[in-house]
Amino acid sequence: MTTTTTSPHSSGPDTPADVEVRRIGGRIGAEIHGLDLADGLAPETVAAIGRALLEHKALVFRDQRLDDAGQLRFASLFGELTTAHPTVPSVDGQPHILPVDGDEGIRANHWHTDVTFVRTPPKASTLRALVVPPYGGNTLIANTAAAYRDLPEPLREFADRLWAVHTNAYDYAEPKDEKAAEHRRRFVSRRYRTAHPVVRVHPESGERGLFIGGFAQSLVGFGPSESRDLLRLLQSYVVRPENVVRIAWRPGDLVLFDNRVTQHYAPDDYGDLPRLLHRVTVAGDVPVGVGGEPSRVVEGDDAAHYTPTEA
């Protein structure tokens, strides 16, 4: 599963003949056709999906017929699973599944990388569409490695030395209703603060990417005003349109994205219409910066109840 620059459709020598990769963005995103994820996948197919994930960062599997068990089974092909979330409750009876339910005030309408406020954020996330509105409710995913490459060289060299403190407890916007307020109370019920390198070296590809997003609230060695300005500058490269792909959901769709080198955003543009996704995440490792130094806990615990990965 490799992609050439001359054709939107491609496959590598180890890709099953009936599997097709179609690029959907110039710098990020591909649709995978020819696979029924409810069937068992051969090891070589799983390996090909893994290679495609490294290349395209976000993969879309359309019109799947997965249930919760099927999503768990698919996600586990890429590593050990986390529980649903460090603070937010899971789906009843499914400790590894997080309901992303617009009716319950769960609307992630800010750019972020999943759970970066702990020391070992997820390796990858899967989102499966159960209920989608007739309009709006898309998910945007950005390539943070492309954003890093876009930086002018002096800014790249500066960013290579920066560290950011990520936290789940900061000044959120005022909740618009009681459900949103309750979700916020649960979200911050246990406080986490973790220092991560602003430039993370991908453990498999070796790419450098901007590891920031909404949970990055301050820069080590800088005051609040300077931190906001510098983070805003770096984030502006992440969200450039050329670095972003927009996923328009259909029921049954599943998206797999590399949480180590992407950010995502779900615009709150569907009013009171229902929208329900289920999220399952694969456990990750400790981020490492350009100089080889690993992330460190500033406040809170090691989130062992959430992620099985040890460091």
Automatic annotation (TrEMBL):
Residues 291-311 are annotated as: Disordered. Coiled coil: none annotated. Its cofactor is Fe(2+). InterPro entries: AtsK-like, TauD-like_sf, TauD/TfdA-like. GO terms for cellular component: cytoplasm. Residues 21-281 form the TauD/TfdA-like domain. Keywords: Dioxygenase, Iron, Metal-binding, Oxidoreductase. It comes from the Bacteria. The keyword Chaperone does not apply. One of its GO terms (molecular function) is 2-oxoglutarate-dependent dioxygenase activity. Signal peptide: none annotated. Belongs to the TfdA dioxygenase family. This is TauD/TfdA family dioxygenase. The lineage of its organism: Bacteria, Bacillati, Actinomycetota, Actinomycetes, Kitasatosporales.
